[in-house]
Amino acid sequence: MVRITEDLVRRRAEHNNCEIFSLEEISLHQQEIEKLEHLDKWCRDLKILYLQNNLIPKIENVSKLKKLEYLNVALNNIERIENLEGCEELKKLDLTANFIGELSSIESLKCNIHLKELFLMGNPCTEFEGYRQFVVATLQQLKYLDSKEIERSERIKALQDYPEVQWKIREQEEAYLLKRAREKEEAQRRMQEKKDEKQKQMDSKLGCDSSDSSQDKSNQAEADGEQERCRTVENDDDDEDRKFWEEPTPYTPESRLETHRYMEEKRRAKDNVRESKKREKTAWTLVTAEGKVLNVNVPKLHFSLKDDEENNQIILDLAVYRHLDTSLLDVDVQPTYIRVLVKGKPFQLVLPEEVKPDSSSAKRSQTTGHLVVTMPKAKEIILAKQKVSASIKHSDCNTQQKTTRRSGQVEKLEVDPSKYSFPDVTKIVQEKERTGQGPIKLQPQEVTEAKKSSYDFENNEDVPPLI
User: Fold this and answer.
1) Is the pLDDT of residue 396 over 90?
2) For residues 108 and 118, what is the distance between their CA atoms, to the nearest angstrom?
3) Which of 144, 254, 261, 350 could serve as a FRET partner for 229 with CA atoms 20 to 30 Å apart?
């Protein structure tokens, strides 16, 4: 049974910032509500109220809604118009497709002096002879009945024929009420029969289960018969569903409520099956019976395994979905393998070498979302140092000693030709003639080249130089 709760009202009041005390309009249609309640206490300022297509059997708890102007309770199980005297500002009332058979109950709407529109289409009372004349004559404030304007001449004629029409309406009402009493009895009988039939089915299912669980069977033929009967019971649900929808039933509040209960039961059963399937996790084989660890990639993710010899570690790069929340990842590093659960689906990989689980670390890339797991190897590798020659070591020692002496005392330059022989520093670098560096070379170089090329050259000062 769905009831009007504060949470439901707040969710349907999003247009008013979820505030219900100042709410002026709310739509609670198609919520399978079975009782009208609480709105007169929580939403005193309501002006428009939509409650169509529910299972409301009675109009109640709306008398305190003094500002209510439009009430829509179409497609419900209402059989009588009542409890609307307190809605002083009511201008429009929609009771389409209900089960109103007591047409005389509209007399309670005489107090609603502002009522201008009334909808009663689809109700049993509309089939009464003189229905429209009776309503027009009874509710003289109405301007529209079932979307049709009431003319002045129509009202005058209805008032003239009112006593006769009223007597006819009373007779038809009594006949309808007797019919409704029989329908209610028939509905209760059918409901009791269905309960008994369902109980028998449950007993047969229990008997089938107990017969299957018994280990001592007298006869193989009897066992086959029991199994066949169990299969028949399992198919009863489909047969019951087909029978329910093909069986002709009268359109009454009880049949409408029964249909709703049946659909709700089926929906709940499907939800239970769906939930049970979710709870049942698939048993993936990660380790064989012999203890061998298998490579498993249920989430079907790309990965790369790198052996970093320089840092003596193994790096796993798992291409996890970029926008997957990190809380949905579970990493388990073991000495010989690594296991990662991605949304409950295992990824398992056997490692080429033994690693240290306690020293391992897992990080998530902020750009790609990949999971990077760094696992140090258990066997540490000692790298050999490069050998240094003795002469280099000796020179390094002398350099260090000299540096130490220099730092400790003032350096002095001593020259002893008997102990040391120094080369002639002036002859280390031969002196070269400086020549021009530009595109035009200077003359001295040409002269030198000329001297080198000709030994019998004579410099005559009277002869001008050649350019």
Assistant:
1) no
2) 13
3) 261
pLDDT, residue 239, reads 78
Rounded Cα gap, residues 298 and 285, in angstroms: 11
Determine the Cα angle at 26 with ends 256 and 32, to 5°: 20
CA angle centred on 129, ends 123 and 135, rounded to 5°? 65
Contact 44, 22 (CB under 8 A): no
Give backbone dihedrals phi and psi of 165, rounded to 5 degrees, phi first: -65, -40
pTM of full prediction above 0.85: no
Which of 47-51, 209-213, 300-304 bottoms out in mean pLDDT, i.e. has the lowest?
209-213
Hunting for tokens 């690594």 — which residue is that? 338
Lookup result for tokens 């089915």: 201
User: What is d(CA 95, CA 118) in angstroms, rounded to the nearest whole number?
Assistant: 8
| Rounded-to-10 torsion of CA 221, 226, 232, 233 | 180
Q: What's the pLDDT tens digit per position in 406-445?
A: 555 555 555 555 555 556 666 666 555 554 455 544 445 4
- DSSP codes, 59-96: --S-TT-TT--EEE--SS---S--S-TT-TT--EEE-T
Distance CA 86, CA 66 (A): 6
Query: Residue 90: exposed, middle, or buried by beta-carbon count in 10 A (0-12, 13-18, 19+)?
Result: buried
